[in-house]
Amino acid sequence: MLSSHKSSVKMNTLKTVVSLFLLCNPVLSCVTTIDRYAWVFDANTDTLISGISTPEKCLEECIKSDTCQGYTWQHQNFVDICLLMKKLRSLEYCGDSCSSGTTVENVAGGCTGAADHIIDEVTTTTVQDCWKTCVQEPQCTSFTWFNQSSMFKETCFLFSSCSEVQDCISCLSGRLLCIEDYIDWTTSYPTGSSSYPTGSTSYPTGSSSYSTGSTSYPTGSSSYPTGSSSYPTGSSSYPTGSTSYPTGSSSYPTGSSSYPTGSSSYPTGSTSYPTGSSSYPTGSTSYPTGSSSYPTGSSSYPTGSSSYPTGSTSYPTGSSSYPTGSSSYPTGSSSYPTGSTSYPTGSSSYPTGSTSYPTGSTSNPTGSTSYPTGSSIYPTGSSSYPTGSSSYPTGSTSYPTGSPSYPTGSSSYPTGSTSYPTGSTQYPTGRPTYMSSSVGPTGSSQYPTGSSGRPTYYSSTSYPTAASSQYPSGSTSRPTDSSSSYPTQSSSVPLPAQCSNYKLLDDVTRSVNSSHNYYCDESSDRYTSPDWVGTGYYRVVPPAGNFIADYSNGVQRCGTNTVGYLMDQHHQEAGREINASVCFKGTSNGGCDRTIDVKITNCIDFYVYYLIDVFLCSSRYCSTEKLYYP
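Request: output the structure for the sequence above.
Response:
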């Protein structure tokens, strides 16, 4: 109970910290930083960076990211780490060596509304400075910053509310993400808590108890609440009305149709019995291991039984007899039953009607279609011949080893034959007539050794080694000689799926030679580019050009404000995908305003690019007809 008390105190402390902060600052609208608490981290979506020495530098990393909503800085085990949150969830206590905060939620357009919503207007050179000014202003919850191309050049408007938004091409807006919005002020509990508040109808992960009125119980509980229809793992009992029982139970409930492991009895109506039972229930058609008897109606008998039930068609091991109607006989029997079509090992005879004969027999029964081992002849009507025979019977479709000929109807020929039968799909290796032939027998899907061509039948999926410049339909490779093309299903140049599944960038205003406009490669923007449909693989085609540009032709080109061009060269290896970066630049001074990671795939005759939404407008990927660095 001590750990439950501590967790509850930590959650109450979080509420107290935020509440006192707001009470001591009655005009404060939003808390954006807090010490001793960390955002819940999801390793699948969030990012961890080590070596970030201060909370302020951790905040700078969050600002650089297009997807970061908040951060947590921690000094843990002599290592400084920075956690960047793609989505804010809840806070959990983390001690003296941590600090957390939020960034901003982007707003599409400019904040507007009643005049009393405007707190102040200041001059800032960047949107980041505008945001920091809003954080420092007690009543500010939202802001709008106008860039250098606006009539309100580098002006930052601070708002107490941004309930109304107006389209704006030359501005950027945002709402502060407030920590108090992610604190549960009700009867719930924080992530990581091991206890729950009074009035809660549920319990947290890790709790060892359940709340009053709950109809379920936590993992690890050794009991279950009244009204529960199930019981926890490790329980030694089951609730009233349950039709099942827990592992380790020594009894079973009324109405159960089964019994627990270790039970020495079985319930009324059971059609089976537990391991170790010395009896079997009425109606059972089987018997337990160790039973020396078998139930009426059983079609089998237990191990060790010296008898077999009436109607059985088999007999137990060790039996010296076999039942009437048996079609077989026990091991060691020197006789076989009437009607048997086989005979025991060691028998010197075979039954009437047998179509086979025992080992060592020197004869075969009348009507047999086979012959004993060692025989050099075969019976009339046989469809096969013995090993060592130099001939084959009439009607045989095969021939013995060493035979110089093959029977009518055979689909193959013997080794050394200089001809092949009608219907053969192969030809003899030693047939000289076909050594230089470019065709095989009718129906052949192969070609003779030394052939310089393939069979005329297109079912062949391979080609001859000698001088072939063709490949047959269905081949997955090309000849090693003079062929200049690959088959459709070739695996010699494997191409990834994106080479046949991509979207098109074909807007002519995207070209580096096009003038200024307000288009943006952001799927949720008012000025979304005509050919942009969101993150995915794209191929550039005319009239836009053939490539994503690898050079800049100046700012306010490509039909946008901020131009984007590749900082990496296109590669020449077919089928390969590489990582690359795109520089976005809105002014003629300095370096890139920001960069975005993309991917480039060489599809032999063209390239495809994996591009993502640019997030800030107006920004756009520029295209070109020819590469500057081919």
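The first helix runs from residue 2 to 24.
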